[in-house]
Amino acid sequence: FRVFEIGTRGAAEAMVEALLERGVFVRKPLAPPIDGFIRVTVGTVAERAAFAQIFSEALAHIREKAAS
C-alpha cells in the first residue's frame, strides 16, 4: 500500500469523496496528525496506471472546487 499526503483533513475527505465518485475506494486515517492522508492499495501495473489517471482527475476536481 501507499500513503499520500493530501493536506488538511477536509482536503483528504474531499479526495476520498472524489475517488469514490469515480469508483475507487481508499481509506483515510481518522486521527491527527495523519488525518490529511489517504491510504491506497493497488495491485497490478494496469491497476496502478488506471489509479494514477483517476487520482489526477480527482485531484484536479478538488483543486477546482477549492478555488471557486
Given as residue ranges, the uncertain stretches (5+ residues, pLDDT < 50) are none
Number of strands: 2
Largest sheet: 2 strands, antiparallel
Helix-strand topology string: EHEH
Terminal residue distance: 33 Å
- Our Rg estimate from Cα atoms comes to 12 Å
Content of β-strand: 5-15%
SSE diagram, text form:
Elements: E1 2-5, H1 9-21, E2 37-40, H2 45-67
Antiparallel strand pairs: 1-2
Structure, explained:
With 68 residues, the chain is mainly alpha-helical. The chain has helices at 9-21, 45-67, and strands spanning 2-5, 37-40. The protein has a two-stranded antiparallel ribbon with strand order 1-2. The chain is globular and about 30 Å long. The model has no long low-confidence stretch (mean pLDDT 94).
Provide a compact summary of the structure.
The chain is mainly alpha-helical and 68 residues long. It has helices at 9-21, 45-67; strands at 2-5, 37-40. Helices cover 53% and strands 12% of the residues.
